[in-house]
Design brief:
Blueprint: E1 13-25, E2 30-35, E3 40-46, E4 48-53, E5 56-61, E6 65-68, E7 73-78, E8 83-98, E9 101-107, E10 117-118, H1 124-140, H2 145-162, H3 174-185, H4 193-200, H5 204-215, H6 219-235, H7 242-248, H8 254-265, H9 269-272, E11 280-283, H10 288-294, E12 301-303, H11 311-328, E13 332-335, H12 343-347, E14 352-354, H13 361-371, H14 375-400, E15 404-410, E16 415-418, H15 424-432, E17 436-437, E18 447-450, E19 462-467, H16 472-482, H17 485-488, H18 491-494, E20 498-500, H19 504-507, H20 511-533
Parallel strand pairs: 11-12, 11-13, 13-14, 15-17, 15-19, 19-20
Antiparallel strand pairs: 1-8, 2-7, 3-6, 3-8, 4-5, 4-7, 6-10, 8-9, 15-16, 16-18
Helix pairs in contact: 1-2, 3-4, 4-5, 13-14, 14-20
C-alpha cells in the first residue's frame, strides 16, 4: 500500500509546480541565513559541502535530496570547486466545489507530511533522473507542456513517497505511518495494540514485528517516547501543572507519569521544569565540564575520579573532590559511564545521571544540553564547528595531500599506536578532514601497544606524538624508542614531519577540543611551510 496523497485522497489539495532552476556555483560558494518562502525540493547534482537547515547540520553530496518547508532557514558552504543543484518550488492549492463551481485557494505547507531535512529514498538514481526530466520539460515553456509538467510532478512525488526510507534505510511503511499519526492525534486517550494493528491492517503480532524492525523499538515504547516528548514541550511553558501535563499526554496519574518520565530522561518532571536554572556538577573524564562550558554553563564542581592508576593517589584525590562536590551543593550531577562505580556516592549528594557509553560525541553533547535546557546552543556549536572544519580542511588538504599520518601516545611504560577504527578522533581526521591513515594504522583495533625497543617500522609521512605526562619514565621510553632502526628509518623522521600534539584522544569529545585539534593541525601545516621555505626541513 502506498502513501496517500492529498490530491488523490478525500481532501482536495493539489500541488502545482511554481518554478525550477538549476544552480551552479564555483569555489567558496556560501549561503547565509536565507529563508524558504514556499515548499521546495533540493537535489544536489555534484559537489559536496555543509547544509544547515534550521540549525541542524547535514552533509550535502551528489545524489542527496532535501525537503525544505516554508519558514526553513538555510545556511550552506561548499567544500568542492563546483557545486550544482536543482531547486524545485511548489505551491499547494485547495479545491472546493461551491454551488457547482470549483474554487481554488492557496494553502501553505508541503503537499505531503514530510519534515524539513534529508529525504532518503530507494533507487536514488531514478529519483535524480525523474527530477532532471521534469526540469527539462519545465525549460520547454510551451503552453502545451502545462499538463505534462504537473503530471510529472505528481508522478515524482508518488515515486518518492513509495520509495521513502527510514533513517535505518528500511522502507517506510505507510500503514505504520498511519498508526503513528493516530498515536500523535490521540495520545491523550487510551490506545491499545489492537487499535494500532487494525489501523495498520495487520494482526497485532505482525504489527509489533514490523514496527520494531522499522523504528528500532516496540509500538509501546514509541508511544511512550511521543508522550514524553510532548510532555517536555509542555513542561517548558511558564505556567504548567504536572498533573495537567500527565493527563494531556495520556498518563492516568501524575505519579505514574513522573516515574515514566524519570525512567526516560533520568530526572523528575519537577527538576526538568527548572533545568535552565540548575546548579550542575560533572563526574567525567570525557570533558563533560567542557561540554557544559560550550553551552555557556560552568559546573559548580568537577570530579575526575577515574584518571589515575595508582589506587592510593586516586583515593586521596577522590576524597578531596567528593568533599568539594558536597560543599558545592549541586542540584544535578552528570557523569560518564566511567563513573558508574561511584553512582551511589554521587546520588547521596544530588540527583545523578550517568550517560550511557557511546562513540558519538554529538550524542553526549545533545543529551547534556537537554538536561540543562540549552539544546539550541548545542546545535549552534555543531554548526559553527562544521563551518570552521570546512575552512580548515581546505588548507590541510593542500598541505597533507596524499601523505599518510599516524598517531602515537607515549606512556610511562609503553608506546601506543592508534588504530583507525570507529572513534570520534578517527572520524574527525579520516572521515571529515579526509586525511589518510598510514598502513601501519590498524582499521580494526583501537590501538596497538609496544615496548619502546620493539615498535614496528614507522612507515608514515607524518607522525603526531602525545607524551602522556612528560615525567622521567615516559621521557626514558621516548629516548629508547628514538634509538631504534624503526624510528630512524621512518619517512616522517627523515623529512622532519614529527610533531608533538595535545591529548587529541581526550579533546575530540567536545566542541572546544575538536576546535583545538583543528588549530594544532593548521599550526603544524603553517610552521612546516615556513620551515620548508627556510630550507630547514630534512636537516
Amino acid at each position: 500500500m502506498t502513501e496517500q496523497f492529498p490530491f488523490i485522497a478525500e481532501t482536495s489539495s493539489l500541488p502545482l509546480l511554481s518554478s525550477m532552476c538549476r544552480v551552479r556555483r564555483g569555489k567558496n560558494f556560501r549561503v547565509q541565513g536565507k529563508m524558504v518562502s514556499r515548499p521546495k525540493l533540493c537535489l544536489i547534482l555534484q559537489g559536496d559541502g555543509v547544509l544547515v537547515l534550521n540549525d541542524t547540520v547535514y552533509t550535502a553530496q551528489a545524489g542527496s535530496l532535501f525537503v525544505l518547508n516554508p519558514g526553513t532557514t538555510i545556511e550552506a558552504a561548499a567544500r568542492s570547486k563546483v557545486t550544482e543543484c536543482i531547486l524545485l518550488s511548489m505551491d499547494t492549492v485547495r479545491l472546493q466545489q461551491v454551488r457547482g463551481e470549483w474554487k481554488m485557494t492557496p494553502t501553505p505547507g508541503f503537499p505531503l507530511d514530510w519534515q524539513t531535512g534529508r529525504l532518503l529514498v530507494r533507487h536514488e538514481q531514478q529519483a535524480v533522473s525523474r527530477l532532471e526530466q521534469l526540469y527539462e520539460t519545465f525549460r520547454g515553456l510551451q503552453p502545451e507542456h502545462f499538463i505534462s509538467i504537473h503530471s510529472q510532478l505528481h508522478e515524482l512525488l508518488q515515486f518518492l513517497s513509495e520509495n521513502r526510507l527510514e533513517a535505518n534505510h528500511e522502507k517506510v511503511d505507510p500503514a505504520l505511518e498511519r498508526s503513528i499519526m493516530y498515536m500523535r492525534r490521540f495520545m491523550s486517550e487510551g490506545i491499545s495494540m489492537d487499535q494500532l494493528a487494525k489501523i495498520a491492517g495487520l494482526t497485532p503480532s505482525s504489527y509489533s514485528r514490523s514496527f520494531k524492525k522499522a523504528k528500532g523499538m516496540s509500538p509501546t515504547d514509541y508511544l511512550n517516547r511521543l508522550r514524553i516528548d510532548e510532555a517536555k514541550k509542555q513542561l517548558t511553558a511558564e505556567t504548567c501543572n504536572i498533573k495537567d501535563v500527565a493527563i494531556s499526554v495520556g498518563y492516568g496519574n501524575e505519579y505514574y507519569f513522573s516515574r515514566k518520565f524519570k525512567q526516560t530522561l533520568g530526572i523528575a518532571p519537577s527538576v526538568y521544569m527548572k533545568r535552565d536554572q540548575l546548579r550542575v556538577a560533572t563526574a567525567s573524564i570525557m570533558g563533560f565540564h567542557e561540554n557544559l562550558a560550550s553551552l555557556g554553563l560552568h559546573p559548580v564542581a568537577v570530579l575526575e575520579g577515574a584518571l589515575d592508576r595508582d589506587a592510593d593517589e586516586q583515593e586521596r584525590r577522590l576524597t578531596r573532590q567528593f568533599d568539594q562536590l558536597r560543599q558545592a551543593k549541586p542540584d544535578l550531577i552528570i557523569g560518564d559511564f566511567y563513573h558508574q562505580p561511584y553512582y551511589d556516592r554521587l546520588k547521596s549528594i544530588a540527583p545523578t545521571i550517568i550517560l550511557e557509553s557511546t562513540n558519538d560525541w554529538k550524542e553526549n553533547l545533545i543529551r547534556i544540553a537537554e538536561l540543562v535546557g540549552r539544546e539550541k546552543q548545542a546545535l549552534l556549536n555543531f554548526k559553527e564547528l562544521e563551518f570552521r572544519k570546512l575552512e580548515a580542511s581546505q588548507s590541510l588538504q593542500l598541505y597533507f595531500e596524499q601523505g599518510r599520518i599516524a598517531l602515537m601516545h607515549i606512556t610511562n611504560q609503553s608506546i601506543r599506536l592508534q588504530g583507525s577504527g570507529e572513534d570520534p578522533l578517527n572520524q574527525l581526521l579520516y572521515d571529515e578532514l579526509e586525511l589518510h591513515p598510514a598502513q601501519l594504522v590498524s582499521p580494526e583495533i583501537y590501538r596497538n601497544e609496544y615496548a619502546a625497543d620493539s615498535i614496528p617500522v614507522l612507515d608514515t609521512d607524518y607522525l603526531f606524538i602525545h607524551r602522556a605526562t612528560l615525567q622521567p619514565a615516559s621521557e626514558k621510553v621516548f629516548r629508547r624508542m628514538k634509538q631504534t632502526a624503526s624510528w630512524n628509518r621512518s619517512p616522517a623522521v627523515l623529512q622532519g614531519n614529527v610533531h608533538d600534539i595535545s591529548n587529541w584522544q581526550r579533546l575530540c569529545w567536545t566542541p572546544a577540543g575538536r576546535l583545538q585539534i583543528l588549530i594544532e593541525l593548521e599550526q603544524i601545516a603553517q610552521q612546516s611551510v615556513v620551515f620548508s621555505h627556510a630550507g630547514l626541513i630534512g636537516h
